[in-house]
Amino acid sequence: MNRKNKAKRGKRAHALLAVTLLLWTLTGCAVVSTASVSTVGAGETDPQAGQTQSDAEPKALRQTFQLDPDHGSAVRLEGTTLLLSIFASDRDTAWDFESEQDQKVIQTTLNNLEVASAYLSEQAQQYGKELTFLYDWREAEDLVFTAEFDESMVRSDTGKANLQIEWLCNYINFSALAEKYQADSVLFLFFFNTDTSSITDGANSELRSWCMPHRHENECLLELCNIYVNSYLRAMSPADYAHEILHAFGAKDLYFADEGITQEYVNSLHFSKDIMYSTNRNSDRITSEFSDLDAYYVGIAPRPAVADKWGLGPSEFDAD
Ligand SMILES: [Zn+2]
Protein backbone atom coordinates (compact mmCIF):
# COMPACT_ATOMS: atom_id res chain seq x y z
CA MET A 1 0.00 0.00 0.00
CA ASN A 2 2.79 2.40 0.95
CA ARG A 3 4.78 1.52 -2.11
CA LYS A 4 1.75 2.12 -4.28
CA ASN A 5 1.25 5.51 -2.71
CA LYS A 6 4.86 6.46 -3.33
CA ALA A 7 4.62 5.38 -6.93
CA LYS A 8 1.61 7.62 -7.30
CA ARG A 9 3.33 10.63 -5.83
CA GLY A 10 4.85 11.74 -9.12
CA LYS A 11 1.61 11.15 -10.92
CA ARG A 12 -0.25 13.09 -8.32
CA ALA A 13 1.95 16.16 -8.75
CA HIS A 14 1.18 16.00 -12.43
CA ALA A 15 -2.51 15.59 -11.70
CA LEU A 16 -2.48 18.59 -9.41
CA LEU A 17 -0.96 20.72 -12.13
CA ALA A 18 -3.70 19.57 -14.43
CA VAL A 19 -6.42 20.44 -11.96
CA THR A 20 -9.25 22.34 -13.56
CA LEU A 21 -8.88 25.20 -11.21
CA LEU A 22 -11.22 28.02 -11.84
CA LEU A 23 -9.95 31.02 -10.16
CA TRP A 24 -6.64 31.42 -8.66
CA THR A 25 -2.97 31.28 -8.36
CA LEU A 26 -1.02 32.02 -5.24
CA THR A 27 -0.28 35.53 -6.37
CA GLY A 28 -3.35 36.67 -4.51
CA CYS A 29 -4.82 38.29 -7.59
CA ALA A 30 -8.57 37.87 -7.51
CA VAL A 31 -8.77 37.11 -11.19
CA VAL A 32 -12.15 35.64 -11.90
CA SER A 33 -12.79 33.48 -14.91
CA THR A 34 -16.32 34.28 -15.96
CA ALA A 35 -16.37 31.40 -18.40
CA SER A 36 -15.55 28.83 -15.78
CA VAL A 37 -18.05 30.19 -13.32
CA SER A 38 -20.79 29.92 -15.85
CA THR A 39 -19.82 26.28 -16.16
CA VAL A 40 -20.59 25.61 -12.53
CA GLY A 41 -23.70 27.66 -12.25
CA ALA A 42 -24.97 27.43 -15.80
CA GLY A 43 -27.98 29.64 -16.27
CA GLU A 44 -27.83 30.91 -12.72
CA THR A 45 -24.85 33.19 -12.55
CA ASP A 46 -25.29 36.85 -13.13
CA PRO A 47 -22.02 37.88 -14.74
CA GLN A 48 -22.77 41.51 -14.09
CA ALA A 49 -23.16 40.94 -10.38
CA GLY A 50 -19.95 38.94 -10.38
CA GLN A 51 -18.10 41.73 -12.11
CA THR A 52 -19.25 44.21 -9.53
CA GLN A 53 -18.14 41.91 -6.76
CA SER A 54 -14.70 41.36 -8.31
CA ASP A 55 -14.06 45.01 -9.00
CA ALA A 56 -15.24 46.27 -5.67
CA GLU A 57 -12.56 47.90 -3.59
CA PRO A 58 -12.00 45.86 -0.45
CA LYS A 59 -13.10 47.50 2.74
CA ALA A 60 -10.44 48.71 5.12
CA LEU A 61 -8.68 45.52 6.03
CA ARG A 62 -8.11 44.44 9.56
CA GLN A 63 -4.94 42.62 10.47
CA THR A 64 -3.85 39.76 8.25
CA PHE A 65 -5.98 36.67 8.62
CA GLN A 66 -4.13 34.14 10.75
CA LEU A 67 -5.02 30.51 11.11
CA ASP A 68 -5.74 29.82 14.75
CA PRO A 69 -3.13 27.34 16.02
CA ASP A 70 -5.59 25.95 18.57
CA HIS A 71 -8.81 25.90 16.57
CA GLY A 72 -7.83 25.74 12.93
CA SER A 73 -9.51 27.61 10.11
CA ALA A 74 -13.02 27.26 11.55
CA VAL A 75 -12.71 28.83 14.97
CA ARG A 76 -15.80 29.32 17.13
CA LEU A 77 -19.38 29.50 15.96
CA GLU A 78 -19.64 33.25 15.77
CA GLY A 79 -18.64 36.11 13.49
CA THR A 80 -18.27 35.69 9.74
CA THR A 81 -17.52 32.33 8.19
CA LEU A 82 -16.54 31.76 4.58
CA LEU A 83 -17.84 28.50 3.23
CA LEU A 84 -15.81 27.74 0.11
CA SER A 85 -17.44 25.21 -2.20
CA ILE A 86 -15.21 22.88 -4.19
CA PHE A 87 -16.89 20.62 -6.71
CA ALA A 88 -14.47 17.72 -6.87
CA SER A 89 -14.12 14.80 -9.23
CA ASP A 90 -12.08 11.74 -8.41
CA ARG A 91 -11.32 8.34 -9.87
CA ASP A 92 -14.86 7.11 -9.29
CA THR A 93 -17.11 10.17 -9.51
CA ALA A 94 -17.33 13.23 -11.71
CA TRP A 95 -19.32 16.40 -12.22
CA ASP A 96 -20.68 17.08 -15.67
CA PHE A 97 -21.37 20.80 -15.56
CA GLU A 98 -23.15 20.61 -18.91
CA SER A 99 -25.64 18.07 -17.59
CA GLU A 100 -29.06 19.28 -16.52
CA GLN A 101 -29.22 16.59 -13.87
CA ASP A 102 -25.89 17.59 -12.34
CA GLN A 103 -26.90 21.23 -12.41
CA LYS A 104 -29.95 20.31 -10.36
CA VAL A 105 -27.76 18.57 -7.82
CA ILE A 106 -25.46 21.60 -7.70
CA GLN A 107 -28.45 23.87 -7.05
CA THR A 108 -29.50 21.52 -4.26
CA THR A 109 -26.13 21.93 -2.56
CA LEU A 110 -26.67 25.68 -2.62
CA ASN A 111 -30.20 25.31 -1.26
CA ASN A 112 -28.92 23.07 1.52
CA LEU A 113 -26.21 25.58 2.42
CA GLU A 114 -28.82 28.34 2.53
CA VAL A 115 -31.11 26.43 4.89
CA ALA A 116 -28.23 25.19 7.05
CA SER A 117 -26.65 28.63 7.31
CA ALA A 118 -29.92 30.31 8.30
CA TYR A 119 -30.53 27.62 10.91
CA LEU A 120 -27.06 27.88 12.43
CA SER A 121 -27.19 31.68 12.55
CA GLU A 122 -30.53 31.46 14.34
CA GLN A 123 -29.15 28.99 16.86
CA ALA A 124 -26.08 31.11 17.57
CA GLN A 125 -28.34 34.09 18.13
CA GLN A 126 -30.07 32.18 20.94
CA TYR A 127 -26.69 32.33 22.68
CA GLY A 128 -26.22 36.03 21.97
CA LYS A 129 -23.79 35.49 19.08
CA GLU A 130 -23.90 37.11 15.67
CA LEU A 131 -23.10 34.52 13.03
CA THR A 132 -22.97 35.06 9.28
CA PHE A 133 -22.08 32.61 6.55
CA LEU A 134 -20.84 33.70 3.15
CA TYR A 135 -21.33 30.85 0.73
CA ASP A 136 -23.45 32.01 -2.20
CA TRP A 137 -21.16 31.75 -5.22
CA ARG A 138 -23.92 33.00 -7.50
CA GLU A 139 -23.29 36.38 -5.92
CA ALA A 140 -19.58 36.03 -5.21
CA GLU A 141 -17.84 34.02 -7.84
CA ASP A 142 -14.62 33.57 -5.92
CA LEU A 143 -16.33 31.30 -3.40
CA VAL A 144 -16.46 28.31 -5.77
CA PHE A 145 -13.82 26.04 -7.29
CA THR A 146 -13.51 22.78 -9.13
CA ALA A 147 -10.85 20.17 -8.51
CA GLU A 148 -9.85 16.81 -9.91
CA PHE A 149 -8.13 14.01 -8.07
CA ASP A 150 -6.85 10.88 -9.72
CA GLU A 151 -7.29 8.73 -6.62
CA SER A 152 -10.46 7.36 -5.00
CA MET A 153 -11.42 10.12 -2.64
CA VAL A 154 -14.97 8.97 -1.89
CA ARG A 155 -14.53 7.03 1.31
CA SER A 156 -15.77 7.14 4.87
CA ASP A 157 -12.35 7.68 6.42
CA THR A 158 -10.02 10.65 6.07
CA GLY A 159 -7.16 8.57 4.67
CA LYS A 160 -6.82 10.69 1.54
CA ALA A 161 -7.52 14.05 3.15
CA ASN A 162 -3.84 14.92 2.96
CA LEU A 163 -4.24 15.15 -0.82
CA GLN A 164 -7.07 17.62 -0.37
CA ILE A 165 -5.09 19.69 2.11
CA GLU A 166 -2.19 19.74 -0.32
CA TRP A 167 -4.58 20.90 -3.02
CA LEU A 168 -6.02 23.63 -0.81
CA CYS A 169 -2.60 24.90 0.19
CA ASN A 170 -1.49 24.97 -3.43
CA TYR A 171 -4.53 26.40 -5.11
CA ILE A 172 -6.65 28.51 -2.79
CA ASN A 173 -5.39 31.76 -1.38
CA PHE A 174 -7.67 31.51 1.62
CA SER A 175 -5.89 34.26 3.55
CA ALA A 176 -6.61 36.77 0.80
CA LEU A 177 -10.22 35.62 0.62
CA ALA A 178 -10.60 35.83 4.39
CA GLU A 179 -9.27 39.35 4.35
CA LYS A 180 -11.39 40.42 1.42
CA TYR A 181 -14.54 39.21 3.16
CA GLN A 182 -13.40 40.11 6.68
CA ALA A 183 -13.95 36.52 7.72
CA ASP A 184 -13.19 35.09 11.13
CA SER A 185 -13.37 31.49 9.94
CA VAL A 186 -12.89 29.60 6.71
CA LEU A 187 -14.30 26.15 6.00
CA PHE A 188 -13.72 24.15 2.83
CA LEU A 189 -16.61 22.03 1.56
CA PHE A 190 -15.72 19.40 -1.03
CA PHE A 191 -18.77 18.15 -2.92
CA PHE A 192 -18.52 14.74 -4.57
CA ASN A 193 -21.15 13.66 -7.06
CA THR A 194 -21.98 10.27 -5.60
CA ASP A 195 -25.14 8.56 -6.79
CA THR A 196 -27.68 6.70 -4.75
CA SER A 197 -25.88 3.41 -5.31
CA SER A 198 -22.86 4.78 -3.45
CA ILE A 199 -23.81 3.12 -0.23
CA THR A 200 -20.42 1.63 0.53
CA ASP A 201 -16.91 2.98 0.31
CA GLY A 202 -15.69 -0.24 -1.25
CA ALA A 203 -14.77 -1.74 2.08
CA ASN A 204 -18.25 -2.95 2.93
CA SER A 205 -18.90 -0.08 5.24
CA GLU A 206 -21.59 2.55 4.90
CA LEU A 207 -20.49 5.64 3.09
CA ARG A 208 -20.92 8.72 5.23
CA SER A 209 -20.01 12.31 4.62
CA TRP A 210 -17.52 13.65 7.11
CA CYS A 211 -15.86 16.74 8.40
CA MET A 212 -12.27 16.82 9.54
CA PRO A 213 -11.55 19.27 12.33
CA HIS A 214 -8.00 20.60 12.36
CA ARG A 215 -5.19 18.39 13.48
CA HIS A 216 -2.15 19.78 15.19
CA GLU A 217 0.17 17.78 12.99
CA ASN A 218 -1.41 19.35 9.93
CA GLU A 219 0.63 22.47 9.42
CA CYS A 220 -2.03 24.07 7.24
CA LEU A 221 -4.58 23.91 10.06
CA LEU A 222 -7.28 23.77 7.43
CA GLU A 223 -10.67 22.29 8.18
CA LEU A 224 -12.60 20.57 5.48
CA CYS A 225 -15.74 18.53 4.94
CA ASN A 226 -16.41 15.89 2.33
CA ILE A 227 -20.04 16.08 1.34
CA TYR A 228 -21.14 13.04 -0.64
CA VAL A 229 -24.33 14.37 -2.16
CA ASN A 230 -25.86 10.91 -1.88
CA SER A 231 -24.60 8.77 0.93
CA TYR A 232 -25.83 6.26 3.44
CA LEU A 233 -28.75 5.36 1.13
CA ARG A 234 -30.10 8.88 0.84
CA ALA A 235 -29.52 12.39 -0.40
CA MET A 236 -27.88 14.69 2.09
CA SER A 237 -30.33 17.12 3.70
CA PRO A 238 -29.79 20.64 5.06
CA ALA A 239 -29.71 19.16 8.57
CA ASP A 240 -26.88 16.88 7.47
CA TYR A 241 -24.99 19.90 6.18
CA ALA A 242 -25.49 21.75 9.46
CA HIS A 243 -24.32 18.67 11.37
CA GLU A 244 -21.10 18.47 9.33
CA ILE A 245 -20.43 22.20 9.56
CA LEU A 246 -20.83 22.03 13.34
CA HIS A 247 -18.11 19.38 13.49
CA ALA A 248 -15.64 21.84 12.00
CA PHE A 249 -16.32 24.20 14.89
CA GLY A 250 -15.80 21.49 17.50
CA ALA A 251 -19.17 19.74 17.90
CA LYS A 252 -19.00 16.02 18.66
CA ASP A 253 -21.03 13.14 17.31
CA LEU A 254 -23.46 11.97 19.95
CA TYR A 255 -24.79 8.83 18.30
CA PHE A 256 -21.87 6.69 19.34
CA ALA A 257 -19.42 6.64 22.22
CA ASP A 258 -16.10 8.24 21.37
CA GLU A 259 -13.37 10.21 23.06
CA GLY A 260 -15.15 12.41 25.59
CA ILE A 261 -18.60 10.97 24.86
CA THR A 262 -19.65 8.18 27.18
CA GLN A 263 -21.79 5.22 26.19
CA GLU A 264 -24.13 6.03 29.07
CA TYR A 265 -24.80 9.45 27.61
CA VAL A 266 -25.35 8.02 24.14
CA ASN A 267 -27.85 5.56 25.63
CA SER A 268 -29.68 8.38 27.41
CA LEU A 269 -30.27 10.13 24.08
CA HIS A 270 -32.60 7.50 22.68
CA PHE A 271 -35.03 9.33 20.34
CA SER A 272 -33.22 12.61 20.96
CA LYS A 273 -33.54 15.31 18.30
CA ASP A 274 -30.09 16.73 19.07
CA ILE A 275 -28.62 17.55 15.68
CA MET A 276 -25.40 15.79 16.59
CA TYR A 277 -27.44 12.66 17.36
CA SER A 278 -29.99 12.62 14.55
CA THR A 279 -30.83 14.73 11.51
CA ASN A 280 -34.16 15.29 9.79
CA ARG A 281 -34.69 14.70 6.09
CA ASN A 282 -36.66 17.77 5.00
CA SER A 283 -35.16 19.82 2.20
CA ASP A 284 -36.61 23.14 3.32
CA ARG A 285 -36.16 23.18 7.08
CA ILE A 286 -34.23 21.77 9.98
CA THR A 287 -36.18 20.37 12.88
CA SER A 288 -33.22 18.78 14.62
CA GLU A 289 -32.20 20.64 17.75
CA PHE A 290 -29.07 22.53 18.69
CA SER A 291 -28.44 21.81 22.38
CA ASP A 292 -26.57 23.58 25.17
CA LEU A 293 -24.01 20.80 24.89
CA ASP A 294 -23.47 21.47 21.17
CA ALA A 295 -23.19 25.19 21.94
CA TYR A 296 -20.55 24.41 24.56
CA TYR A 297 -18.49 22.32 22.17
CA VAL A 298 -18.52 25.02 19.48
CA GLY A 299 -17.34 27.64 21.93
CA ILE A 300 -20.38 29.86 22.43
CA ALA A 301 -21.81 28.66 25.75
CA PRO A 302 -20.52 27.61 29.17
CA ARG A 303 -20.21 23.97 30.13
CA PRO A 304 -23.73 22.73 30.82
CA ALA A 305 -24.64 20.63 33.85
CA VAL A 306 -25.40 17.67 31.60
CA ALA A 307 -21.69 17.44 30.68
CA ASP A 308 -20.70 16.82 34.29
CA LYS A 309 -23.69 14.62 34.98
CA TRP A 310 -22.62 12.18 32.27
CA GLY A 311 -18.86 12.62 32.59
CA LEU A 312 -18.40 14.14 29.14
CA GLY A 313 -15.07 15.44 27.92
CA PRO A 314 -13.96 19.06 27.71
CA SER A 315 -14.64 21.51 24.89
CA GLU A 316 -11.63 22.57 22.84
CA PHE A 317 -12.43 26.09 24.00
CA ASP A 318 -12.08 25.36 27.73
CA ALA A 319 -8.43 26.43 27.69
CA ASP A 320 -9.12 29.81 26.06
ZN1 LIG B 1 -21.07 13.55 12.60
Task: Kindly list the characteristics that best describe this protein.
two-stranded antiparallel ribbon; globular; alpha/beta; 320 residues; disordered N terminus; binds zinc ion; 6-stranded mixed β-sheet; single chain
Secondary structure elements and their pairing?
Blueprint: H1 2-17, H2 34-40, H3 47-55, E1 79-89, H4 100-126, E2 131-134, E3 144-148, H5 161-171, H6 174-180, E4 185-192, E5 210-212, E6 224-228, E7 230-231, E8 234-235, H7 238-248, H8 263-268, H9 292-297, H10 305-309
Parallel strand pairs: 1-2, 1-3, 1-4, 4-6
Antiparallel strand pairs: 5-6, 7-8
Helix pairs in contact: 4-7
The site of zinc ion has 3 residues, from helix 7.
Tell me the radius of gyration: 19 Å
The description of the largest β-sheet is: 6 strands, mixed
- The number of distinct β-strands equals 8
Mean pLDDT: 79
Distance between the termini: 41 Å
The residue ranges in which pLDDT falls below 50 over 5 or more consecutive positions are 1-63
| Helix content class | 25-40%
- What ligands are attached or bound here? zinc ion
What's the overall geometry? globular
Secondary-structure-based class equals alpha/beta
Helix/strand order: HHHEHEEHHEEEEEHHHH
Percent of residues in β-strands:
5-15%
How many helices in DSSP terms?
Answer: 10
Task: Give a written overview of the molecule.
There is one protein chain. With 320 residues, the protein is of the alpha/beta class. The chain has a domain at 2-24 and 62-252. The protein is 33% helix and 12% strand. It is built from 10 helices and 8 strands. The strands form 2 sheets. Strands 1, 2, 3, 4, 5 and 6 form a 6-stranded mixed beta sheet that branches. Strands 7-8 form a two-stranded antiparallel ribbon. A hairpin with a 2-residue loop joins strand 7 and strand 8. The termini are far apart. Bound molecules: zinc ion (ZN). Zinc ion (ZN) binds at residues 243, 247, 253.
